[in-house]
Amino acid sequence: MGPAGSVSRMPADNMSLAIFDLDETLISIDSDHAWGEFICELGLVDRDQYRARNDAFYEDYKQGQLDVRAYLRFACGVLARYPMNQLVDWRQQFVETVIEPAILPAAVALVNRHRRAGDYPIVITSTQRFITETIVERFGIETLIAPEPEIVAGRFTGEVVGVPSFGQGKVTRLNAWLADHGHSLKGSYFYSDSRNDLPLLRLVDHPVAVDPDETLRQEAEQKRWPIITLREQDH
After folding, report:
1. In this structure, are residues 213 and 192 in contact, taking their beta carbons and an 8 Å threshold?
2. Which of 21, 30, 32, 193 is catalytic?
3. CA-to-CA distance for 38 and 120, rounded, in angstroms?
4. Which of 13, 23, 119, 197 is catalytic?
C-alpha cells in the first residue's frame, strides 16, 4: 500500500467479516500516542510542549471525550513539515523499533484463525492511515479503514479528508465500504478494547471485547458479549 492506500482483494459475497480495532487490540500499545512519543525522541517537535498535548489527547481518548478532528489536525500537522520519503524512512524505523515488539502473537493467531475459517479480515482504526497501513500489512490484512490525511503534490497538507473513523464515524465509514463493495454485516465479528467502539460493537452480529477498558467491560458483561485477552504472550 502507498500512502493513499489501496485494496487488492475483495471478500466474496458469502464471506463473513472479521473486523478488528488496531491499538490495544491487535497490538499492545496505542500506535497514535506512540508515534507522538517517537517524533519527540527524534527531535522533530518541541518535546515538552508536544508531549503534553499528545498525552492530553490520549487521556481524552481513554475517557471517551476526544475531539477527533482537533487531534488529527495536531497529529497530521507534523506530517506536513517534511517530504514523503523522509517520513517513510522514519515510519519504517518506528515500525521496527516500537511496533514490532508490541505485536501480540495471540492476535496474529486470531486473525489467521478467521482467515482459515473463510472470513475476511478488516482493520478499522481511528489512527490515521500513514501510521497504520504498514502495521496492518504486518498482519497480512489488505483492507484498512482509517482517517485519511490529505496529500497534494506528493506531500501531506496537515488536513484530513472525509469522515474520521472514530466512534460513530467507524460505523459511517464501514457502511460506506459495505455499500461500495456490495457486502453486509451478516455473520460479522468486531474485536475491540475501547468504549469508543461501542457504536460499532452494538452493530455487528458477534461483538467481542478484547482486554477491554472498564466502560466496555461493563457493557460486555451486561450484554453477555465474549470478553477475551490476547495478552498471554505479551512480555
Report:
1. no
2. 21
3. 32
4. 23
Q: Please give the mean pLDDT across all residues of the chain.
A: 92
pLDDT digits (tens, 9 = 90+) for 148-157: 999 999 999 9
Residue 154, classified by CB atoms within 10 Å of its CB into exposed (0-12), middle (13-18) or buried (19+), is exposed
Beta bridge partner(s), residue 17: 120
- Residue whose C-alpha is closest to residue 128's, from 164, 175, 82: 164
Q: Which fold has domain 17-228?
A: Rossmann fold (3.40.50)
pTM: 0.91
How far the first Cα of the chain sits from its last, in Å, is: 30
Return the pLDDT at 11.
Answer: 73
User: Has 21 been annotated as catalytic?
Assistant: yes
Dist CA 123 CA 112 (whole Å): 14
Instruction: Give the model's confidence band at 6: pLDDT under 50 very low, under 70 low, under 90 confident, else very high.
Output: very low
Interaxial angle between packed helices 31-42 and 84-94, expressed in degrees from 0 to 180 and rounded to the nearest 10: 110
Q: What angle do CA 62, 44, 47 make, to 5 degrees?
A: 55
In the chain, % of residues over pLDDT 70 = 94
Residue 193: active-site member: no
Confidence at residue 9, expressed as pLDDT on a 0 to 100 scale: 56
